[in-house]
What we know:
mainly alpha
Amino acid sequence: MGFWIASAIGLAIAYLFGSVPTGYLAGKLLRGIDIREHGSKSTGATNVLRTLGKWPAFVVLLVDLLKGAAAIVFARWFYGWLFTWPSVTPPATLDLQSWVAWAVCLAGLAALLGHSLSIWLNFTGGKSAATGLGVLLAMSWPVGVGAAIAFAVVLAVSRIVSLGSILAALTAIALVCGLEQPLPYRLLVIAGGVYVIVRHRANIQRLLAGTEPRFGQFSLEPRAEL
């Protein structure tokens, strides 16, 4: 029982990594606003760009990437260490290598949920694209790099951030299925990619209607000098 409790604690910590409300904190610290009441009402870097400007958006994007990667790095260390903890006895039939792979994937999913359903923001948040990319880069860098390239190309051509995020998620799913990746990693990327796409459902409706704003179209709200 102690082993499973410790495992659940590890997932909770990964969730807390993801739940750090970077965009919300940027709004409070820089302008004293709740960014969820402005622009698209998301706490992600795109809404920070429209509401606060380029440099705050860059910092938020970087931190969101890092917290996704940190959740994976932590999970690999924690679940590997858990088997060496004398006071925690894992089930005798449990295979270490297999369990760590599954646990790392669950931690990555927990980080995604933490970003979009942050406990600090009454379970609201962003769309998990940047945090998901951080998870990908730490878990399987070829898949992460491929998704990042897809995002960059689509953004350069269309200048629509949401379209880039959606196609990056689809690219990650295609890559993880086509490359030699463990089954847990494949399932995580598929689940995480679908989750990110579902989080963009309002954007998809605007894309179909031709009303989705393009990169560089800022909020009409007055913005303080930063």
